Amino acid sequence: MYFAYQGKRKMNYEVHGEGKPLVILNGLMMSTKSWEPFLEELTRYNQVILVDFLDQGQSERITDIEYSHDIHVDSLHDLLQFLELEKVSIFGVSYGGEVALQFALRYPNMTDKLLLFNTAAKTSYWFTELGNSWASALGDPLRYYLAAIPSVYSPKFFDEHEEWVEAHKEKLVEVFVDPMFIDSMKRLINSSQGYDVSNRLGDITAPTLIVASEYDHVTPYYEQKYLHKHIKNSELVYLPDSGHALLFEHPNLMISLMLGFLLTEHHDYKL
Amino acid sequence: MYFAYQGKRKMNYEVHGEGKPLVILNGLMMSTKSWEPFLEELTRYNQVILVDFLDQGQSERITDIEYSHDIHVDSLHDLLQFLELEKVSIFGVSYGGEVALQFALRYPNMTDKLLLFNTAAKTSYWFTELGNSWASALGDPLRYYLAAIPSVYSPKFFDEHEEWVEAHKEKLVEVFVDPMFIDSMKRLINSSQGYDVSNRLGDITAPTLIVASEYDHVTPYYEQKYLHKHIKNSELVYLPDSGHALLFEHPNLMISLMLGFLLTEHHDYKL
Amino acid sequence: MYFAYQGKRKMNYEVHGEGKPLVILNGLMMSTKSWEPFLEELTRYNQVILVDFLDQGQSERITDIEYSHDIHVDSLHDLLQFLELEKVSIFGVSYGGEVALQFALRYPNMTDKLLLFNTAAKTSYWFTELGNSWASALGDPLRYYLAAIPSVYSPKFFDEHEEWVEAHKEKLVEVFVDPMFIDSMKRLINSSQGYDVSNRLGDITAPTLIVASEYDHVTPYYEQKYLHKHIKNSELVYLPDSGHALLFEHPNLMISLMLGFLLTEHHDYKL
Amino acid sequence: MYFAYQGKRKMNYEVHGEGKPLVILNGLMMSTKSWEPFLEELTRYNQVILVDFLDQGQSERITDIEYSHDIHVDSLHDLLQFLELEKVSIFGVSYGGEVALQFALRYPNMTDKLLLFNTAAKTSYWFTELGNSWASALGDPLRYYLAAIPSVYSPKFFDEHEEWVEAHKEKLVEVFVDPMFIDSMKRLINSSQGYDVSNRLGDITAPTLIVASEYDHVTPYYEQKYLHKHIKNSELVYLPDSGHALLFEHPNLMISLMLGFLLTEHHDYKL
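Structure tokens for the assembled complex are given below, as produced in the milestone run.
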């Protein structure tokens, strides 16, 4: 389905199932398609709204302006109004988690629960250079694969699933050759510049689940410790041995953590 | 409600709600009452069976024989048959997790999912001496409190909740003065001697969630790493900064982890 | 050798070897004797000053007054003046580390380097209760052993060295039956009440080595993280799998960390 | 100074100071020059032998044959014979640690102590791809910098030393433009293919120090845990918050760990 943001920019979204609404925000190289295998589980108790950010997946490219994360926060807000959803829980992973945080800060009354998986509070200097390393490898599909993909996995998972990784590599390299993918990726990477909510986390009021991975090279553990320290109503879960891409390394556990947090009503137990 | 194990030993149990059955097995100093505050959450999607082990809570004391964990495995099995429950998920914490593991090994077909929170695969020499330290402090309620309770919390939680801890202390000391409590506790501690399933974990087939805490002095993290390494179909979650008593330190997260694992159907995703 | 603090209280000390002076401050249940096996290594490049705190080892008992750590800081200072040592490096473990920190704050010009092993910045509420658990077990030697000793080791070391632990136990229980030991221990435990330098760590200027152990139940890891965060010129080393008693679990590594830090001159490398 | 390996290949080495000999083996992008700032400290008690591997630093390029680590083990052995050094301690970092391990396996009688900093037991599939990502970025100096350098630091150090990092970047980019550097780097990366001593670690008899860093993306922590588990006579030290390049992030601590381990004679204490 398409929503026309500002009456013109076509944004791909899908609504599945019924129940309390959960919006899922993709990581950089993901799309609504990434969630297909999990829809059976995710929609058992919730309505699930999948979205491709502008310049991502099947959403429209943005070639006329430079943009920051703001365009995603805005367009998500307008989409939710269009869908007449007054309050939603938001799950975001990595890039998606950063947009989720900014949405929760701008629209606290529309934010039910916040689920931040492998997410940071700002685009640090280090992360800027990591982004630059990806951007500078774009153009040559194998080089881009090598720059961006192995670091997304925990080294152990990568080693133990060589066959799967190699099959996946073939498919990815085909995607990475696409000029449209390349241009979008450059702009999306660029849109993270200047992102910094590190001083505003105290304003987050939504119950928040923060998930960190031991071998997450992209959004290292100390970022999630920082989020947990500054978001009042937050819980921190740490996954030993796993990497940035929980989706692939621990899909059942990822779903399980999501559902559990969504389906639990949080009480101030006086034990 | 009472079930008469072997036609004679009265075992206290409660059945709440409807849905797929979840049996909850207490830690050493817990009882069915410990779960009351959480029943609203726990029964939203599941039927919950609470049980006091024999010699625990409102179940009958066992003063005529020495016993091991076996009596709990047996009596739980007979109770489930009596309740006509063919397959249940079992959550156990600490002592309860140890009984859960043995139940899953003896009755694999009756075990749906296994949730092992702060649990070990055997009563190590170290744990034996820790148990002895508790046993040797029994008799003097304050001494027993000091021996058994502070180590159950993470030091940080304890420090940050001094008022709550002190109020709790008053109540506990009143319990610890009770001769019936003292005698039961001695027998329950004693029943863990010889417990060792460390070489049999490969036989566990149920999807298993293992939860570990950074500052768990009673069942230290390396025990849960061992469980995770040897139980094929298991997931490991690590909770930074928390102690042995998740119930008190992170009740919402505990419920959330339980519900999530129970409500997720585990797939062999071919991603 | 004995030094008469304030002309009257006899304090046991030993001076070994030659070179830059290193003062070694004992943990609660240690004494100058604990260091005998290591003197060959420790004196190869340094002069080593061993000290029994007042009320410890072969130093005089303090039965006429209540005291805090201050008496140790004072008496150490006077001893060093008597020995005409103007500047010393100070190694302290646990209780000894706490005295070392207070010495460094009061006599910064006399403090060369600071080596804090398994040390905390304050006697927290939690630690007070742990101390109370030890104090309340005094009187019955086996009970005291169980209360104080197993928690000093990492569970794994304890399990893997059962024979050694049992032999050690026999010797310790003989010590714990001694009324003089019992009374001293009560006073030493009590002397830690009110200890708190957590707000003054910014004043420490000495190069400081902080060593933490994964399974240190007595002075948990977050205490050393706190020290490291607030002592400007400090380095933090973390020892996986080990417990509070490095002396027994990793003697070679302990000596190695001590010597390395002492023998390295710290530079502000402009690399 | 130059040694002619096999009478022809010129190998750059330096001998500094007197005392028990310590051989220092460089990481991939290091050279004898990297150690200059530390010679004052390192030579205080030891003789230090610095070496540029063939194809590294001021040693001769190897353009006529393909080679593996073996050539370094061989040439190091011949150099030591030439220097009439019968037994040496060997420090190696990363690539240098891997050569050190192989030297210790082939020449146990010539190996005194082994110091393995940020080292792995094999070139895993994951590490192969990481090496490929570096190799594929060679040619464009900025791209190579981005591929290889930021991941060598802990993200936190990188962020907190932006000015230093940027100044360093300028210098590095000038090096990375050099065709001789590029060709050597390709061959050195390639020489790690097939490296695997993971099944032979039980044969290591030298006292071994293993140092790991929390945010070491290049040789992740689980590699050092593996080394520690399988090298009998080893100690494991873990450095929280630091990255692969201890040399830059914690120079004083690095020196301190080296000296301490070298200067301590290891005893089998019967405590």
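The CA atoms of residues 21 and 85 of chain B lie 8 Å apart. The longest strand of chain B covers residues 9-16. Further analysis is deferred to the final report.
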